[in-house]
């Protein structure tokens, strides 16, 4: 409801990326003072006995933390180059396109995360209460203009990412979009909600791990599996950079059974496509360059392969995302117990299905062994849903398990994404939001 008026206003004002409210001189001064404070603060000074740990200084520190994440943070996205053994790019204060709907929710929370003055968020922007809606909703960080008139760049929490500079695929997309694929990110977000357990198989640098972790929130869990050591390190970095407390990472290749396999890892010192490197049946190094433009490191490393069924999850698994470069059948064969017991929705990359002629081994196995029905949802991507028996005995996807917004997300994102369509797509993530458009 609340976001209906928020979005309604957005559509009305025709938000463009440079429509941000001008920064006041006080905001600029405040930001600079806070940045200076962080440079100077030394909690360890005088053997932890200095005034930096006095109540006043601690309060000012907290205040700066809060303000720098909201109104006072730098508005422009920035990219920094780093790296000692291989080059990295650090993307700072990314807010556009939005990574998740959760940032905007901050408009309605006070500093400690409680609904402001117990007012229903839907009322805050309602101008029948006055030209600024319910004034009790606002303070100097979160204003009517910010939350209701479309200065949503500030309502979206800033995100931070690191990726190998030469990664032309996932790292490149994460730097641009804050995710690997916007449509898939929002679609996956429709498939889970607050408190859910999600499994991300082939997490890479965390292009979906981060948005999914925000979507399921502090009471949910994302279990992210990534076999390649250095890619895994970037995954962890991105989880930490975004202060996400609900992600569990595993430096493991999921497969049909436990094994240790020698494999080449992606070379991060050259332009490369790290996400396309397989764990099993790898090309020989020369063939990899020739056939797939992939570059390996000189030496192999030993990768750990384990079946998903060996892992124990605290609660029901709602969603599994699988992107494992031709190993998806093995992943599923090692996960039959988990899938039977939890009946999760499954999003899976399966190139074989899209080959000409199609190889239906994966889809047939899902149908025969697990009573799942898979259908194409994007290029190379399948969506697999527990089947429901039709009168003739045929299984069809149980539509009751698919949130209404799931398919609509894509409709808004065809071609170049545009602001309005982007907001509509994002709105599909939250049904209460979408029903008002
Ligand atoms: C089809 O895919 C399966 C694995 O999913 C593979 O074992 C099989 O060899 C493939 N068949 C053909 C004809 O390529």
TrEMBL record:
Residues 200-355 form the Methyltransferase FkbM domain. It comes from the Eukaryota. Keywords: Signal. Coiled coil: none annotated. Residues 1-16 form the signal peptide. This is Methyltransf_21 domain-containing protein. It comes from Durusdinium trenchii.
């Amino acid at each position: 409801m609340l976001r209906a008026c928020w979005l309604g206003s957005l559509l009305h004002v025709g938000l463009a990326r440079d429509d941000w409210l001008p920064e006041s001189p006080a905001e600029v001064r405040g930001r600079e003072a806070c940045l200076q404070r962080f440079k100077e603060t030394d909690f360890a000074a005088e053997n932890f006995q200095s005034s930096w740990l006095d109540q006043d200084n601690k309060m000012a520190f907290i205040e700066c933390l809060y303000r720098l994440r909201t109104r006072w943070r730098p508005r422009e996205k920035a990219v920094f180059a780093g790296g000692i053994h291989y080059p990295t790019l650090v993307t700072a204060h990314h807010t556009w396109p939005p990574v998740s709907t959760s940032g905007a929710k901050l408009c309605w929370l006070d500093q400690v995360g409680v609904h402001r003055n117990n007012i229903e968020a839907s009322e805050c922007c309602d101008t029948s209460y006055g030209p600024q809606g319910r004034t009790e909703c606002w303070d100097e960080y979160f204003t009517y203009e910010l939350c209701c008139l479309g200065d949503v760049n500030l309502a979206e929490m800033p995100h931070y990412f690191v990726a190998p500079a030469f990664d032309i695929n996932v790292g490149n997309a994460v730097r641009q979009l804050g995710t690997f694929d916007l449509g898939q990110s929002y679609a996956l977000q429709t498939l889970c909600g607050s408190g859910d357990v999600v499994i991300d198989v082939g997490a890479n640098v965390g292009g979906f791990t981060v948005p999914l972790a925000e979507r399921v929130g502090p009471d949910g869990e994302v279990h992210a599996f990534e076999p390649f050591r250095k890619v895994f390190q970037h995954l962890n970095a991105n989880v930490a950079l975004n202060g996400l407390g609900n992600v569990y990472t595993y430096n493991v290749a999921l497969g049909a059974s436990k094994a240790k396999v020698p494999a080449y890892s992606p070379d991060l010192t050259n332009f490369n496509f790290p996400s396309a490197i397989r764990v099993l049946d790898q090309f020989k190094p020369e063939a990899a360059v020739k056939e797939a433009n992939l570059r390996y490191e000189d030496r192999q490393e030993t990768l750990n392969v384990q079946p998903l069924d060996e892992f124990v999850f605290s609660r029901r698994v709602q969603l599994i995302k699988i992107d494992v470069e031709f190993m998806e059948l093995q992943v599923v064969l090692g996960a039959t117990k988990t899938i039977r017991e939890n009946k999760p929705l499954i999003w899976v990359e399966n190139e074989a299905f899209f080959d000409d002629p199609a190889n239906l081994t994966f889809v047939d196995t899902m149908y025969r062994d697990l009573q799942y029905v898979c259908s194409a949802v994007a290029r190379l991507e399948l969506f697999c849903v527990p089947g429901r028996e039709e009168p003739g005995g045929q299984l069809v996807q149980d539509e009751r398990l698919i949130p209404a917004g799931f398919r609509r997300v894509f409709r808004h994102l065809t071609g170049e994404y545009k602001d309005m369509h982007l907001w509509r797509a994002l709105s599909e993530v939250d049904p209460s939001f979408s029903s008002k458009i």
